[in-house]
Amino acid sequence: MYTGKVIIVGAGPGDPELITHKAVKYLQQADVVLTDRLVSRELLDEYVNLEAEIIYVGKEAGSARSTPQKKINDLLVEHYYQDKLVVRLKGGDVSIFSNILDELETLQEHKIPYEIIPGITAASGAAAYSGIPLTARGYADSVRYLTCYKSEYKPENYWRELAKTDDTLVFYMSGENIDTLVFNLIRHNISADKAIAVITQATTPCQHVSIYQFDDINTLTNTAFVSPTLIIIGKVVNLYQRFSWKDNSINSDSYFKSVSYIRNRLSVL
Ligand code: SAH
Does any ligand 1 atom lie closer than 6 A to the CB of residue 97? Predict the structure, then answer.
Protein backbone atom coordinates (compact mmCIF):
# COMPACT_ATOMS: atom_id res chain seq x y z
CA MET A 1 0.00 0.00 0.00
CA TYR A 2 1.51 3.28 -1.08
CA THR A 3 0.97 6.40 1.00
CA GLY A 4 1.89 9.07 -1.55
CA LYS A 5 -0.32 11.24 -3.68
CA VAL A 6 0.08 13.60 -6.62
CA ILE A 7 -1.34 17.11 -6.44
CA ILE A 8 -1.57 18.96 -9.75
CA VAL A 9 -1.45 22.64 -8.88
CA GLY A 10 -1.85 25.90 -10.80
CA ALA A 11 0.70 28.47 -9.64
CA GLY A 12 -0.97 31.49 -11.23
CA PRO A 13 0.47 33.77 -13.91
CA GLY A 14 3.57 35.18 -12.20
CA ASP A 15 2.92 37.40 -9.20
CA PRO A 16 3.59 34.99 -6.28
CA GLU A 17 0.66 36.45 -4.38
CA LEU A 18 -1.74 35.20 -7.04
CA ILE A 19 -1.57 31.61 -5.81
CA THR A 20 -4.36 29.94 -3.83
CA HIS A 21 -4.18 29.12 -0.12
CA LYS A 22 -4.73 25.50 -0.98
CA ALA A 23 -1.73 25.47 -3.32
CA VAL A 24 0.45 27.06 -0.65
CA LYS A 25 -0.70 24.47 1.88
CA TYR A 26 0.43 21.66 -0.42
CA LEU A 27 3.75 23.35 -1.24
CA GLN A 28 4.43 23.54 2.48
CA GLN A 29 3.79 19.80 2.85
CA ALA A 30 5.32 18.51 -0.39
CA ASP A 31 8.21 16.04 -0.52
CA VAL A 32 8.85 16.74 -4.20
CA VAL A 33 7.83 19.63 -6.45
CA LEU A 34 7.99 19.17 -10.22
CA THR A 35 7.86 22.70 -11.57
CA ASP A 36 7.25 24.37 -14.93
CA ARG A 37 9.26 27.13 -16.60
CA LEU A 38 6.55 29.72 -15.96
CA VAL A 39 6.70 29.40 -12.20
CA SER A 40 8.93 32.00 -10.63
CA ARG A 41 11.85 31.52 -8.35
CA GLU A 42 10.25 33.97 -5.89
CA LEU A 43 7.22 31.74 -5.59
CA LEU A 44 9.31 28.62 -4.99
CA ASP A 45 11.44 30.46 -2.44
CA GLU A 46 8.46 31.74 -0.58
CA TYR A 47 6.20 28.73 -0.38
CA VAL A 48 8.04 25.45 -0.88
CA ASN A 49 9.22 23.91 2.39
CA LEU A 50 12.99 23.71 2.74
CA GLU A 51 13.10 19.91 2.92
CA ALA A 52 11.35 19.43 -0.39
CA GLU A 53 13.22 18.50 -3.53
CA ILE A 54 12.43 20.84 -6.41
CA ILE A 55 12.79 19.36 -9.88
CA TYR A 56 12.67 21.69 -12.87
CA VAL A 57 10.72 20.10 -15.72
CA GLY A 58 10.26 23.18 -17.88
CA LYS A 59 9.19 23.17 -21.49
CA GLU A 60 10.09 25.74 -24.06
CA ALA A 61 8.95 25.31 -27.63
CA GLY A 62 11.91 24.23 -29.72
CA SER A 63 14.37 24.43 -26.85
CA ALA A 64 16.85 21.69 -26.07
CA ARG A 65 16.26 22.48 -22.40
CA SER A 66 12.70 21.18 -22.62
CA THR A 67 11.82 18.15 -20.55
CA PRO A 68 9.98 15.52 -22.61
CA GLN A 69 6.46 14.79 -21.36
CA LYS A 70 7.31 11.11 -20.96
CA LYS A 71 10.08 12.04 -18.53
CA ILE A 72 7.66 14.13 -16.47
CA ASN A 73 5.13 11.30 -16.39
CA ASP A 74 7.84 8.88 -15.26
CA LEU A 75 8.95 11.23 -12.47
CA LEU A 76 5.39 11.49 -11.17
CA VAL A 77 5.10 7.71 -10.99
CA GLU A 78 8.59 7.15 -9.61
CA HIS A 79 8.11 9.57 -6.72
CA TYR A 80 4.65 8.29 -5.94
CA TYR A 81 6.09 4.78 -5.55
CA GLN A 82 8.56 6.23 -3.04
CA ASP A 83 5.56 7.20 -0.88
CA LYS A 84 6.03 10.90 -1.51
CA LEU A 85 3.61 13.77 -1.63
CA VAL A 86 4.33 15.06 -5.11
CA VAL A 87 3.24 18.52 -6.23
CA ARG A 88 3.16 19.03 -9.99
CA LEU A 89 3.29 22.82 -10.24
CA LYS A 90 2.14 24.39 -13.49
CA GLY A 91 2.08 28.03 -14.60
CA GLY A 92 -1.33 29.72 -14.64
CA ASP A 93 -4.24 27.32 -14.46
CA VAL A 94 -3.73 23.58 -14.84
CA SER A 95 -6.49 23.09 -17.37
CA ILE A 96 -5.56 25.79 -19.89
CA PHE A 97 -2.94 24.88 -22.50
CA SER A 98 -1.11 22.53 -20.18
CA ASN A 99 -0.36 18.89 -20.77
CA ILE A 100 -2.58 17.84 -17.91
CA LEU A 101 -4.32 15.15 -19.94
CA ASP A 102 -1.10 13.17 -20.43
CA GLU A 103 -0.38 13.38 -16.74
CA LEU A 104 -3.90 12.40 -15.69
CA GLU A 105 -3.83 9.40 -18.00
CA THR A 106 -0.52 8.32 -16.51
CA LEU A 107 -1.83 8.68 -12.96
CA GLN A 108 -4.97 6.76 -13.77
CA GLU A 109 -3.03 4.02 -15.51
CA HIS A 110 -0.97 3.51 -12.36
CA LYS A 111 -3.97 3.95 -10.04
CA ILE A 112 -2.24 6.89 -8.38
CA PRO A 113 -4.53 9.10 -6.26
CA TYR A 114 -4.50 12.76 -7.21
CA GLU A 115 -6.08 16.15 -6.64
CA ILE A 116 -6.34 19.09 -9.04
CA ILE A 117 -5.99 22.62 -7.64
CA PRO A 118 -6.82 25.48 -10.04
CA GLY A 119 -4.77 28.60 -10.60
CA ILE A 120 -5.32 32.01 -12.18
CA THR A 121 -4.77 31.64 -15.89
CA ALA A 122 -2.57 34.12 -17.79
CA ALA A 123 -5.63 35.64 -19.52
CA SER A 124 -7.19 36.59 -16.18
CA GLY A 125 -3.90 37.82 -14.76
CA ALA A 126 -3.04 39.88 -17.83
CA ALA A 127 -6.56 41.29 -18.09
CA ALA A 128 -6.59 42.40 -14.47
CA TYR A 129 -3.06 43.83 -14.37
CA SER A 130 -3.57 45.75 -17.61
CA GLY A 131 -7.09 47.01 -16.85
CA ILE A 132 -8.67 45.30 -19.88
CA PRO A 133 -11.95 43.66 -18.77
CA LEU A 134 -12.34 40.72 -21.14
CA THR A 135 -16.14 40.72 -21.41
CA ALA A 136 -16.90 44.38 -20.67
CA ARG A 137 -20.60 45.10 -21.26
CA GLY A 138 -21.16 46.76 -24.61
CA TYR A 139 -17.73 45.66 -25.86
CA ALA A 140 -17.84 41.83 -25.86
CA ASP A 141 -20.25 39.12 -24.74
CA SER A 142 -17.78 36.26 -24.66
CA VAL A 143 -14.12 35.48 -24.53
CA ARG A 144 -12.18 32.73 -26.29
CA TYR A 145 -8.82 31.24 -25.39
CA LEU A 146 -6.90 30.22 -28.51
CA THR A 147 -3.46 29.60 -29.86
CA CYS A 148 -1.88 30.17 -33.27
CA TYR A 149 0.74 27.69 -34.45
CA LYS A 150 2.59 28.65 -37.58
CA SER A 151 2.78 25.09 -38.78
CA GLU A 152 -0.90 24.34 -38.33
CA TYR A 153 -3.08 25.04 -41.34
CA LYS A 154 -6.39 26.76 -40.64
CA PRO A 155 -9.03 27.05 -43.35
CA GLU A 156 -10.15 30.42 -44.64
CA ASN A 157 -13.49 30.26 -42.86
CA TYR A 158 -11.67 29.90 -39.54
CA TRP A 159 -9.95 33.26 -40.05
CA ARG A 160 -13.07 34.85 -41.55
CA GLU A 161 -15.08 33.94 -38.47
CA LEU A 162 -12.36 35.14 -36.09
CA ALA A 163 -12.14 38.47 -37.93
CA LYS A 164 -15.91 38.90 -37.73
CA THR A 165 -16.71 37.84 -34.19
CA ASP A 166 -17.29 40.32 -31.39
CA ASP A 167 -15.88 37.85 -28.87
CA THR A 168 -12.67 38.89 -27.20
CA LEU A 169 -9.85 36.68 -28.50
CA VAL A 170 -7.00 35.75 -26.21
CA PHE A 171 -4.07 34.01 -27.86
CA TYR A 172 -1.68 31.94 -25.77
CA MET A 173 1.72 30.74 -27.04
CA SER A 174 1.42 32.89 -30.14
CA GLY A 175 4.01 35.65 -29.64
CA GLU A 176 6.22 34.29 -32.39
CA ASN A 177 3.31 33.97 -34.81
CA ILE A 178 1.75 37.35 -34.29
CA ASP A 179 2.49 38.33 -37.90
CA THR A 180 0.51 35.38 -39.23
CA LEU A 181 -2.30 36.14 -36.86
CA VAL A 182 -2.61 39.82 -37.67
CA PHE A 183 -2.10 39.27 -41.39
CA ASN A 184 -4.97 36.77 -41.55
CA LEU A 185 -7.36 38.95 -39.56
CA ILE A 186 -6.62 42.00 -41.71
CA ARG A 187 -7.06 39.93 -44.86
CA HIS A 188 -10.57 39.14 -43.64
CA ASN A 189 -11.33 42.79 -42.93
CA ILE A 190 -11.28 42.87 -39.16
CA SER A 191 -12.97 46.04 -38.02
CA ALA A 192 -10.79 49.03 -37.15
CA ASP A 193 -12.64 49.54 -33.86
CA LYS A 194 -10.89 46.45 -32.52
CA ALA A 195 -7.33 46.66 -31.27
CA ILE A 196 -4.48 44.37 -30.22
CA ALA A 197 -2.83 44.25 -26.81
CA VAL A 198 0.45 42.38 -26.51
CA ILE A 199 1.16 41.72 -22.86
CA THR A 200 4.51 40.26 -21.91
CA GLN A 201 5.44 38.81 -18.49
CA ALA A 202 2.00 39.73 -17.15
CA THR A 203 1.57 40.33 -13.40
CA THR A 204 5.35 40.40 -12.82
CA PRO A 205 7.58 43.45 -12.21
CA CYS A 206 8.60 43.14 -15.88
CA GLN A 207 5.04 43.35 -17.25
CA HIS A 208 4.81 45.31 -20.48
CA VAL A 209 1.69 46.16 -22.46
CA SER A 210 1.82 47.36 -26.08
CA ILE A 211 -1.33 48.45 -27.88
CA TYR A 212 -1.67 48.38 -31.67
CA GLN A 213 -4.45 49.42 -34.05
CA PHE A 214 -5.23 47.25 -37.06
CA ASP A 215 -4.88 50.16 -39.45
CA ASP A 216 -1.34 50.80 -38.28
CA ILE A 217 0.46 47.59 -37.52
CA ASN A 218 3.89 48.21 -39.05
CA THR A 219 5.55 48.64 -35.68
CA LEU A 220 3.94 45.46 -34.40
CA THR A 221 5.18 43.26 -37.19
CA ASN A 222 8.71 44.56 -36.68
CA THR A 223 8.84 43.84 -32.98
CA ALA A 224 10.13 40.73 -31.23
CA PHE A 225 8.35 40.16 -27.94
CA VAL A 226 9.82 38.75 -24.74
CA SER A 227 8.36 35.43 -23.62
CA PRO A 228 5.83 34.76 -22.20
CA THR A 229 3.50 36.81 -24.38
CA LEU A 230 -0.27 36.96 -24.36
CA ILE A 231 -2.24 38.62 -27.15
CA ILE A 232 -5.70 40.09 -26.57
CA ILE A 233 -7.77 41.17 -29.58
CA GLY A 234 -11.11 42.94 -29.53
CA LYS A 235 -12.92 46.16 -28.75
CA VAL A 236 -12.17 45.72 -25.05
CA VAL A 237 -8.53 46.54 -25.74
CA ASN A 238 -9.54 50.17 -26.22
CA LEU A 239 -10.43 50.28 -22.51
CA TYR A 240 -6.75 50.02 -21.64
CA GLN A 241 -6.21 53.77 -22.06
CA ARG A 242 -8.86 54.47 -19.45
CA PHE A 243 -8.36 51.73 -16.91
CA SER A 244 -4.71 50.67 -16.90
CA TRP A 245 -3.42 51.09 -13.37
CA LYS A 246 0.03 49.57 -13.49
CA ASP A 247 2.90 51.46 -15.10
CA ASN A 248 4.66 49.69 -17.92
CA SER A 249 7.96 48.26 -16.84
CA ILE A 250 11.10 49.62 -18.44
CA ASN A 251 12.85 46.53 -17.14
CA SER A 252 13.68 44.26 -20.08
CA ASP A 253 14.85 41.47 -17.80
CA SER A 254 13.29 38.03 -17.87
CA TYR A 255 11.25 37.30 -14.75
CA PHE A 256 10.95 33.52 -15.13
CA LYS A 257 14.41 32.17 -14.48
CA SER A 258 13.86 28.75 -13.05
CA VAL A 259 16.52 27.10 -15.18
CA SER A 260 19.36 28.99 -13.57
CA TYR A 261 17.89 28.76 -10.11
CA ILE A 262 19.98 26.47 -7.96
CA ARG A 263 19.49 26.74 -4.23
CA ASN A 264 21.19 23.40 -3.55
CA ARG A 265 17.93 21.65 -3.99
CA LEU A 266 16.78 22.32 -7.50
CA SER A 267 17.57 19.59 -9.98
CA VAL A 268 17.73 20.65 -13.60
CA LEU A 269 17.02 17.66 -15.80
N1 SAH B 1 -1.50 27.03 -18.12
C2 SAH B 1 -1.07 28.36 -18.44
C3 SAH B 1 -0.75 28.52 -19.92
C4 SAH B 1 0.43 27.70 -20.37
S5 SAH B 1 0.81 27.92 -22.05
C6 SAH B 1 -2.11 29.38 -18.00
O7 SAH B 1 -3.21 28.99 -17.61
O8 SAH B 1 -1.81 30.57 -18.02
C9 SAH B 1 2.06 29.15 -21.95
C10 SAH B 1 1.53 30.45 -22.50
O11 SAH B 1 0.75 31.11 -21.52
C12 SAH B 1 2.61 31.46 -22.85
O13 SAH B 1 3.14 31.22 -24.14
C14 SAH B 1 1.83 32.75 -22.82
O15 SAH B 1 1.05 32.91 -23.98
C16 SAH B 1 0.88 32.50 -21.66
N17 SAH B 1 1.41 33.06 -20.41
C18 SAH B 1 1.63 32.39 -19.27
N19 SAH B 1 2.05 33.22 -18.30
C20 SAH B 1 2.09 34.46 -18.84
C21 SAH B 1 2.44 35.74 -18.36
N22 SAH B 1 2.84 35.93 -17.11
N23 SAH B 1 2.35 36.78 -19.21
C24 SAH B 1 1.94 36.61 -20.49
N25 SAH B 1 1.60 35.43 -21.00
C26 SAH B 1 1.67 34.36 -20.19
Answer: yes
